[in-house]
Amino acid sequence: MTEDSQKNKRRRSQFRPCIDLHQGQVKQIVGGTLDLSSLASSSTNGLKTNYVSSHPPSYYSTLYRTHNLTGGHIIKLGSLNDTAALDALSAWPGGMQLGGGVTEDNAVKWLEAGASKVIVTSWLFPEGKFDLGRLERLEGLIGRDKLVVDLSCRKKPIVEQSKSQESEWAVAMNGWRTLTDMEITKKNIEMISAHCSELLVHAADVEGLCQGIDEELVKCLGEWTTIPCTYAGGAKNISDLSLVDRLSNGKVDITFGSCLDIFGGDVEFSQLVKANLAHQE
């Protein structure tokens, strides 16, 4: 490759892997059916599960490590997942990010346990209202480079959308069931990005459905983000990698979950790995 072609070569979207944990097991869950607002951590009322793995979490982090799939994340969905998370982290120290229940009280612990970065969501929204002071304290505690903010969202009800012309989406917490007071807008993304090194955005309305990504959301994220951003939700085939690349101009990466054969789906993980390598080249 010539020097000029290297200068003109833009970044390409890449596949980032995931491990979702629920009650100590690796699972793929339909977004919005998980209720984390109750202290009854064993409750499964209304829960829709696509896949429950017979493998330990370390199986997946070892698989990702073998293929050098960096920048992936482990998400603890509710309590009873600490042991499982430690198992996943132990197989690839420094190789994956960790989210789910992260606060200023335990962030350092998870980094010391092997997380490359920690991902924070609900703790930033006490009673559903964004608290910039909490974000600034966490940034001061662990450093901006070790912090990822999860801005997973849902589309607002039509009546709420009509009140604001800025955004169709609001950040969601408590298993994506509770809408917060923060909208997904360019201004808010710029504000959050000043205090973290990456963004993670689940489109909860399509998460786990394998019926297609939220194209409009991906396009907006590509226009607004100035830091690395990973999108998750609705991926159904390998071509979604190129679709996200085109919509975001290579600024947004994508997670594939329920559609993969390693999680009971139809898309071959090995073929996605090959496509991802070819895509980068």
UniProtKB/TrEMBL annotation:
Subcellular location, record wording: Cytoplasm
The protein's enzyme class: isomerase
Catalytic activity: 1-(5-phospho-beta-D-ribosyl)-5-[(5-phospho-beta-D-ribosylamino)methylideneamino]imidazole-4-carboxamide = 5-[(5-phospho-1-deoxy-D-ribulos-1-ylimino)methylamino]-1-(5-phospho-beta-D-ribosyl)imidazole-4-carboxamide
GO CC annotation, single: cytoplasm
GO terms for biological process, alphabetical: L-histidine biosynthetic process; L-tryptophan biosynthetic process
One Pfam family, short name: His_biosynth
Keywords: Amino-acid biosynthesis, Cytoplasm, Histidine biosynthesis, Isomerase
Protein EC: 5.3.1.16
Record-stated family: Belongs to the HisA/HisF family.
NCBIfam families recorded: hisA_euk
Entry protein name: 1-(5-phosphoribosyl)-5-[(5-phosphoribosylamino)methylideneamino] imidazole-4-carboxamide isomerase
Annotated source species: Tremella mesenterica (Jelly fungus)
